[in-house]
Amino acid sequence: MTLTTSGATVQAAGSTYLVPGFEAAAFPVPTDLLVGEGWVPGSGGQRIDILDPATGGVLTSVADATIADGMAALDAAEAAAAGWAATPPRARAVILQRCFQAIVDNVDWLAQLIALENGKALPDARGEVLYAAEFFRWYAEEAVRINGDISVAPAGGNRIMVQYQPIGVSLLITPWNFPAAMATRKIAPALAAGCTCILKPAEETPLTALAVGEILRQAGVPAGVVNIINTSDPAGVCSAILRDRRTRKLSFTGSTEVGRILLREASYNVINCSMELGGNAPFLVLDDADLDAAIDGAMIAKMRNAGEACTAANRFYVQAGIYPAFVEKLVAKMGALKMGAGTDAASQCGAMINRAAIDKIETLVNDAVAKGASVRLGGKTPEGAGFFYPPSVLADVSLDADLLREEIFGPVAAVVKFTDVEDAVRMANDTEYGLAAYVYTENMKRGLQLAERLDYGMVALNRGLVSDPAAPFGGVKQSGLGREGGHHGLLEFTEAKYIAVNW
Ligand code: ADP
Q: Can you tell me which residues form the catalytic site (predicted)?
């Protein structure tokens, strides 16, 4: 993770950032902290520089929250909690619907902002904004459907009444790869359930979250219901919040490594955790697959966001009969993608987030090549400014290559040939991760049987994309705890209250 904190770029309080090229359409994005009533500069006076991954240059800076600022955000969230929980579900739903519409209305410049600070190509950025907005629409619809239940106790007489109540003040920690969608996937269900929250975005991409925060304010989210703090000290600030008894929920998306640390921090006050952690998605192509459909699916599963997604296909296991044709077509399709700055309208594969990401990709590619993989496309970091890596295909990757065990998080497809489907299932399941898996076969009976046998929270059958705000997104094993999206995602921000009644 690259973070530059430069004393030289300290700005005055109330500072904003206007997306270049959208001066008329966009509103100035606040670059301070959203705490309670509005934007505040923070108590430490420090700023965090935000880089453009396409050039390595500085875009602007944002306020750097201290532990005291984190506590102020918690005070604000706590102060607003009772009022928001008591707001009628329909009133909450109306506000969420307005948030949906406001994000959609601002899609163009929000996409440009994401492309600028994250580096992803504009079509990916635009897709993300619309996906991010959908969480508000879905949870606006869910806010009025938080149904409990009532039953007669098996022994008769007593009644078992169950009600879902807001869990309370929630800390939401998000990564840089989907700066809008990872925030709204947490904020929308939290608000629908009646919880107030503190969002802690990733240091690399806070501007999008800040823009969303201002949109929510303008759409009528009351003061203190959503607070946003960026900090160069996530460990210190988040631990302080988690060790305060007023915090009742942690929803985290990020690496398994940081997830483990946060589970420990959450253990002090036994805080309820939803954890969306790392993945290592296998993509199985059987001999009877529709080759063109499998290639289209592979391109989405591998290249959406240039591979910087926890659901990104990391390992392609392709059956021997279809293997040569699959590799040939994949190379052709990947080779036709235009790499370039995300903000360049022609780009299809944007920049990686930072230098460390490039270093990791290079290390994994070099290891695979040293162990016998054949480079069929790309495989070399280009010269010049910015954090770019080209679409790459490695065929005949050997089973001991590190890249089959570790998420590469970049535009590199590793392809392995198999003969026996049982071997493919065994290799696919041979990982401590279990987020998403993909299967292509025209035999639906076999496809569904495989889907049941893959140790993953999500299996895409003849599809290259699993994400859907209406579906429960999440992993098994070390890929996480809990689900986001769908009705499940709402329940994560509630507690089941059992009332034992006799009337
Ligand atoms: P990545 O490797 O994708 O950057 P991380 O897991 O490092 O993912 O980061 C995801 C989010 O977790 C970011 O918002 C980051 O600031 C935050 N984070 C990192 N370390 C900690 C920590 N010790 N405590 C709380 N949050 C953290």
A: 276
